[in-house]
Design a protein that fits this description.
It is built from seven helices and nine strands; from the N terminus they run ααββααββαααβββββ. The protein is α+β, with helices and mostly antiparallel strands. It has a single domain, classed as paralog of FGE (formylglycine-generating enzyme), CATH 3.90.1580. It has a four-stranded mixed β-sheet with strand order 7-6-5-8. Strands 1-4-9 form a three-stranded antiparallel β-sheet, with helices on one face.
Length: 302
């Protein structure tokens, strides 16, 4: 089955007072099932979301990612090594969803330098009457300059479209995170725990060495990619455009989790250890899933 943490109930280890109640609202997860079977309320498709063009909008820096080839995915050996170093919540089979590594050609594009913040997302909510994240009721996660979390794929897609942008493809996101030389992490091929906002290598074990037990501000100089894109390893997972399907030539991943309409998120989070911080890491979930460690950023064509 697909890679995921074994039991969502372990999130009560976050020790965020209101979080357990919120997670009950967000998801109904079968313990031990590798598919997150989340069920959330359908969001409003208010016409305001397409007619609020006159409202103030975030003005965030974007970074140009030049056209060219890059290495995407992992070799079989890299995937197995990542599984061997994982944080205890994923199976070997799931890592093989990253296989094979191959060269991909992309045109140039722009990507947000920072993850979308709570203050950015609030402008969207105020302008469009889109449903606000329930996690905003928790003071540990609702600071203006911290990444918005508790949003599903459709929320992220609607926000980006409101700005005349879009969610990055999985290939675009991965290139923006790792550059062109096939490096394992944004900074190189050796794990460096000082480079990102991550867990301590145990399931939901939080590492505060970076100064943040939970999320870090979107402008923090952590997980910096070769192009200068911030938090491309750790802090929060990020939704991308793609469905969770097999890479061409993948004959290693034999489970039946592909082609179900799941969406991908990437990049690891403050909840996870080093294996999930790799740009090649890919996780597929139902598009209506929301969690305390999933956010996003936007991209656009040049």
């Amino acid at each position: 089955s697909q890679r995921k943490r074994n039991k969502l109930s372990n999130k009560e280890k976050l020790v965020i007072p209101s979080l357990i109640v919120l997670l009950v609202i967000f998801s109904a997860v079968v313990l031990g099932n590798k598919n997150k079977n989340a069920s959330v309320a359908t969001k409003s498709n208010s016409a305001d979301e397409t007619t609020a063009n006159s409202s103030p909008k975030p003005q965030n820096d974007m970074i140009l990612i030049p056209a060219g080839e890059f290495f995407m995915g992992s070799t079989e050996q890299q995937a197995i090594e990542a599984w061997q170093k994982n944080d205890g919540g994923y199976d070997k089979e799931g890592y093989l969803a990253e296989y094979p590594r191959r060269k991909i050609m992309l045109g140039n594009f722009y990507i947000d330098k920072k993850e979308v913040s709570n203050s950015d997302y609030k402008m969207f909510v105020d302008a469009t009457n889109h449903i606000a994240p329930a996690l905003w009721s928790d003071q540990t996660l609702n600071s203006p300059n911290f990444p918005v979390v508790g949003v599903d794929w459709s929320d992220a897609d609607a926000y980006c479209r409101w700005l005349g942008k879009r969610l990055p493809t999985e290939a675009e996101w991965e290139k923006a995170a790792r550059g062109t030389d096939g490096r394992i992490w944004p900074w190189g091929n050796a794990w460096n725990p000082t480079k990102g906002n991550h867990g301590n290598g145990t399931e939901y074990g939080f590492d505060e060495s970076d100064g943040y037990k939970y999320t870090a501000p979107v402008g923090s100089e952590l997980g910096v990619s070769p192009y200068g894109v911030l938090n491309m390893a750790g802090n929060v997972y990020e939704w991308v455009e793609d469905d969770f399907n097999a890479y061409p030539g993948n004959d290693k991943y034999t489970q039946q989790d592909f082609n179900k309409g799941f969406k991908v998120f990437k990049g690891g989070a403050y909840t996870d250890g080093q294996s999930e911080q790799r740009p090649a890491s890919r996780v597929g979930y139902q598009k209506d899933y929301k969690d305390v460690d999933i956010g996003f950023r936007c991209t656009k064509n040049k």
